[in-house]
Structure formats: structure tokens, C-alpha cells
Amino acid sequence: MSDVLTATRVPARLGRFVLRMFRPQIYVTYGVLWTLALEGSAEALSGPSSHWTPSGATAVRAVSVVLALLFARMVDEQKDLEYDRRHNPDRPLVTGAITVAELRGAMALITVVVVVLNALVSALSVLLILLALGYTLFLVALERWSPRIGEALIANLLVSYPVQLLLSVYLYVSLLTGDAIDGDGRAVPLLAMFACAFLQFEFARKTEWRRDPEARLYSEVLGPRGSAAVCLALAVGAVALGLLLFGTRGLLPALSIVFPALGAWRFLVRRQPSGLMLPAMGFVLFFNLLCFYGSTAIAIGR
Q1: Is the whole-model pTM more than 0.85?
Q2: What SS3 state is found at 208?
Q3: Residue 226 buriedness (CB in 10 A; 0-12 / 13-18 / 19+)
Q4: N or C: less crowded end of the chain, CB within 10 Å?
């Protein structure tokens, strides 16, 4: 009887963990928009011979990206356990609302699901999504081998960001293997455009006026103004790359620059403690949405 009760409680505990720590309304939306925006943009750059439309393979890639983001969230929760015991005592792992074993079981299930799904698309898709999940686990071993990497914020960003980059490569190459697009050198600025959009949010969420050396803030390293400037520069970089790639057709995504500009004003002029974060998330979501909408309009207009 106790085993049956445990078996029924684990999904509920995992569900509560996901709702609290992963916020599906944000991250699922982000993962789906990221997939559609990157695929649509790649198609728009591929020329009149391309024939991409959202398909079953697109759905597989979108689900895989969302599950990979959840996988990374679960890994981070375990990796930061000792830090959270000191600074975030209300976290699920610290309070016992979820256990390490339960998270690892969910991670194993995620791995099986993405392998099965991507086997329907291509062998290379399986390899690349496993590479992204494997790199996430590699980061845990790397930080244990060299704790200074985990403590040095900029160094940690440099070694951890490739997880997001690998997911973008997975999306692009998986699309390429389906003969939906013709790849060329413009893939590099295209992937860089999405990298800038994500990184501006990464800096925004860790930029505050308060001083707290234990809080792992970029503003502790670069200063509040310096960190806010990097955040705004990355948003401008994403917009500039969009205009470089699409010309005047990139003006629609460029409109989303109003979000980081508003965030910079709230943070630097109004000195609101965390004024950058919500506008930065708005930029990520609307930039991806407008990239997809704009690239779809380009395809229709050919």
C-alpha cells in the first residue's frame, strides 16, 4: 500500500515542482516561440527553393526544447543545493517538497522521451538533443572538479551558455536534415541573433542595485550600470543582427527593442530594484514572436 501511495504522490510532487520552479506559462511559451522563430527565420533566409512549413517534426523539436529546458532546471536545482540551503531555504529540494531521486527519475524519463521523439525525425536530431542534455550534466562534473568555475560568475556563464547554443544548433541542423531549408553561412549570425536575445535576459535577471556578494549578480562584477548597459547592448545586438539578415523586413522584430529600453529607463533613471527583468522577458518573447510572424510574412510574399 505504501508503494502505491508513493507512486501516486511522485507525479503530484513533480507537478508542483514544475509549476513553481519552471513556470510553464513562460518557459513553454518561450520554447515554442524559439522553435518557430528560428525555423521560420532559417526558412526566410533559405531562398525561394525552400519549402518549410510547421510540421510534425516542428512539434517534436518544440517539445524537445521545452523538455531540455526543464531538464536543465532540474539539474540546476541539484547543482545549487548547498548554496540554496544557505540562501534560499524555501526551495523544493531544501524543504523536501521534492527529492534528488525523484528529480533524477524525471530526468531519465525526459531523456527517453526526447530520444524516442527525435528518432522519428533523424538520427542526427537524436545525437544533437542528447549532446545538449549531456553537456548540462557535464557542467555539474566540471564545477565539482573546479569549484572556482561555479563561483566566478562570468566564467560560469561562458561554460554554461553553450547549453542554449546547442539547442539552437539542434533546431537548425534538425531542420536542415529534413531538407526543409538550404543551409549557408548566414546560420552563424542567425544563431548569434537568438543568443543575444537570451543573454540580455540572463543579464537582466541578475542585475540589481543592491550589493550582495553572495547573490551571484552580474551587477556585483560589472556594477549596476555596467550590467544594465550589457543587457541593453545585447538587445540592440539582436535587433541589429535581425536588420542585417532581413533588411527592412527585419523592422517588425526591431520594434520589440522598446521593452529593454523601458527596462533600462526603469532601472537607471527610476532606480527600480529589479526593473530590467520583466521588460527583458517581454523582449525575448515578443522578439521571437515577431521574428516568426515576420518570417512567415516573407515566405507568403514570395
Answers
A1: yes
A2: coil
A3: middle
A4: N
